[in-house]
Design goal:
Blueprint (H helix, E strand, L loop, with lengths): L4 H24 L11 E4 L4 E3 L7 E7 L4 H17 L4 E7 L4 H11 L5 E3 L4 H5 L7 E5 L5 E6 L4 H9 L3
Parallel strand pairs: 3-4, 4-5
Antiparallel strand pairs: 1-2, 1-5, 3-6, 6-7
Length: 167
Amino acid sequence: MKKYAPILIMIMALAVAILALRQFRSQEGLSVGQQAPGFTLNDFEGNLVSLNDLRGKVVLLNFWSAACPPCREQMVALQQLYEDLSAQGFTILAINVNDRQEVALNYLAENGYTFPALKDADLAVARMYAVTGIPKTLILDRGGMIRDVRLGPASEATLRRMIEEWL
């Protein structure tokens, strides 16, 4: 049995590595350079918003929850970017996951956020974009191509650099 122990350890290590790599790949979801899948969701006033209608604009997709401290921290930066860059053909679709509608709506109103916010009630869009953690942010160019994908919070300066490259 002792002579097979190193082989068994190597097999187990390889299996763990393969599982870890699969998890890393699934966190990326869609790849940079791919066309972003279209979707239509309701905003918090009940209006339908379609990603395809935003062609011609640089779009920041952000998956978030009011219960997520890193998401809340990033929302301040998103508001500033929206105010600074929307006149240059930039917009945000902040896609709420996991919150009850009234919780998300109250959070947005209490903090004065004015960028477009949508509710992914059945998480269909989150699954489509392989959201395994939040915040998850994607930058789409004017043609709807994915140009950057970030899992976790990003500073305003980092987000600004990601966006301005495509304006």
